[in-house]
Amino acid sequence: MIYSLWMNLINIGVDAKTPTDTATSIRLVNTMNAVTAGSAIFLAPLLTYTTGKPILLPGYIEASLFLISFWLNHKRKHFLAASLMLFTQNAAALYFGLHFGLFVPIVSLCIALGLTSFFLFQGTIKWLPGFLLSFLVINAIYFSEKSNLIVPWKFQVNEENSIVYLANVVIYLLSAIVVGFYTKQIRAANRYKTKYLTKTNHEINRHVFALQDIVNGLPINKDSGKIVISDSDIRLLKKYIQSIGNVVQGGLQLVKIESGHYERANYEHLELDSLLIDIKDEAEAFLTMRNLRLTFNVDPAVPKVIYTDRNKLGFILSNLISNAIKFSNKNSGIIVNISMSQDSIIYQVLDFGKGMSRLKLSEIFHRLFVTEDNLLVQGNGIALPMIREFVDLLKGRITVDSDLGKGTCFTVYLPNKEEDETVEQGDIKWDGSILKGRKVIAVDDDIMGREFMRKILLQMGGEVFLCKDTLEAMEAFRSVKADLIMMDIRLERNVDGLDFIKENYSLISGIPVIMHSSEDSDILQAQIEKAGFIYLKKSLSADDLHNTQRVIRNLMRLPLNL
Fold first, then answer.
1. What is the pLDDT of residue 377?
2. Closest by Cα among 540, 486, 546 to 518
3. Taking a C-beta distance cutoff of 8 angstroms, is the pair 442, 464 a contact?
4. Tell me, what DSSP letter sits at residue 153?
5. Which of 155, 237, 263, 489 is a plausible cystine mate for 517, CB 3.0–4.6 Å?
6. Which residues does the UniProt record annotate as the domain Response regulatory (predicted)?
7. How many Å apart are CA 300 and CA 467, to the nearest integer?
8. In what order do the strands lie in the sheet with 484-488?
């Protein structure tokens, strides 16, 4: 009961969105307010009664100013709260130092207050006024003592000993609080960074060994002597490589977060279903291990193509789902609801697991490496703090509700940005209106090739239907009323994309076709153009991407294929 009240007191002004370094400063201010105000409220009447000196009114004014500092923290006026606390501490030190003649103890207190100012406002020049104020108090008391400017009160021997003892106790407590706070922070930072490095090393080794097992287990064709690799093997390899990349990226993001430098958002047009499929594939093995069901409920009002940062949104959702998997009861389910409000897309991740206490809810987004241990941080130890950083970067907000023993619900609100905004990427300005409302079938047997086409087509606002082979292409030709077809020239099993298009042209008659290849061949280009199609080089160079956008813009002057 007492501990709970104390924690609530020192956490006044701290919530889940308060940055960790700010939260630490707020707790230090509140702790010094509580200790000094409590001392003043208790000692002022006691010393007034025993000595007969005018101590009661100054003591209660001092306590009142500390209570106002609490109120300022509650109102999120943290700089004013800290400044008022430091001013009151120094004013009290000056008043009682002059009248009690306690030069040596007061010097110790002022040194502690100067260090407190430095700790509270480190990284800015704001620490200097508090530091100078403490320095002036020391010199004012020293000057008064040497010049007898203010004659200290006279006390009986037993009274003076009691006052010195009480002053030393209060000063010792305040000094211990300052030193203890930051010693604890440094030790915690070192401990959790070591923990992070250990987890990171384990995560990377685990995935590297899994990659080795997959590669070593691939069959070899007896006739050709070549390794045989299937699509499922490729997907599995891609998953583990992506997991290693996520761990490495997590470390890079940690450096940026701790240094206060963050990435800017890289907006692009994103096919939401494609992202959800990737996230589910990535989580499949972990879901199977715990016998969990993952369900996506997407409101029909949510656009199929959204305008956001794919990597950051993917990180947010996949890590919220990872946490849900970790803390869900076995044989239960995880539900992801995606819906629309007037100006936001709402992503809700709900689990039926352990749940969290109110105290834990106030801490889960704090940066692990400068604050308390966080049991909800999954994997490499920085997921939830980074989720909050990414949500803020995307101009959104995140909330969490939880019932202990019943489950937890994270809700992310992200702005629904316009799809036809121009996107800058390097030297390329992508016009999101070129393919707006248009359907594009993109055929490529290579994963990276499909990703290349998906990205540039979504940047231009198109709804993309990806096909990895001729079977999927045939199905798309029959079911999708496409406005554009992009076909790789070299398909699986040495199938020629140009021949395939010619053989099945009756299915796509009247639809513009772009044949693309990484081969820079004049002969190949002549063959394609002779057949009545358009040739584009598959390249990431600025000139080639500019040309791709120019060609598609000219093609899309044709009416929509409705």
1. 34
2. 540
3. yes
4. P
5. 489
6. 439-553
7. 24
8. 463-467, 439-443, 484-488, 513-517, 534-537
Q: What are the pLDDT digits (tens) for 348-378?
A: 999 988 888 776 666 676 544 333 333 333 3
For 249, other C-beta atoms within 10 Å of its C-beta total: 15
Mean per-residue pLDDT, 325-338: 89
- SS3 per-residue string spanning 467-493: ECCHHHHHHHHHHCCCCEEEEECECHH
**H-run or E-run covering 49:** helix 20-51
Q: What DSSP string runs through 161-220?
A: HHHHHHHHHHHHHHHHHHHHHHHHHHHHHHHHHHHHHHHHHHHHHHHHHHHHHHHHT--B
The predicted model gives 81-107 an average pLDDT of 81
Integer Cα distance of 498 and 511 in angstroms:
15
Share of the chain above pLDDT 70, in %: 76
Q: Which is higher by pLDDT, 552 or 156?
A: 552
Give tens-digit pLDDT for 381-430: 456 777 887 888 888 889 888 888 888 999 999 998 754 444 444 445 67
* pLDDT tens by residue, 135-166: 888 888 888 878 877 777 776 767 667 776 77
- Rounded distance between C-alpha atoms, residue 318 and residue 283, angstroms: 8
- The answer to whether 102 and 46 have CB atoms below 8 angstroms apart is no
pLDDT digit string (tens) for 295-306? 999 999 998 888
Q: List, in sequence order, the alpha helices (H) in 101-154.
A: 103-120, 127-147
The ranges assigned to domains in the chain are: 2-189, 268-415, 422-555
Q: Residue 213: beta bridge partners?
A: none
163, 47 Cβ separation under 8 angstroms:
yes
pLDDT band at 258 (very low <50, low <70, confident <90, very high): low
Instruction: Give the strand pairing for 333-340 and 484-488.
Output: unpaired
Evaluate whether 96 touches 39 at the Cβ level (below 8 Å).
no
CA-wise closest residue to 32 among 10, 61, 12, 47: 10
Closest CA to 439 of 416, 415, 467, 418: 467
Residue 417 and residue 345: Cα distance in Å, rounded? 9
Q: Could you report the per-residue pLDDT of 498-531, keeping only the tens digit for each?
A: 888 888 888 888 888 888 876 656 677 788 888 8
Question: What pTM does this model have?
Answer: 0.46
What one-letter code names the amino acid at 204? Answer: I
Q: For domain 268-415, give the fold.
A: Heat Shock Protein 90 (3.30.565)
* Fold annotation for 422-555: Rossmann fold (3.40.50)
| Position 260 confidence tier, pLDDT thresholds 50, 70, 90 | very low
Q: Crossing angle for the helix pair 231-259 and 157-216, nearest 10 degrees?
A: 160
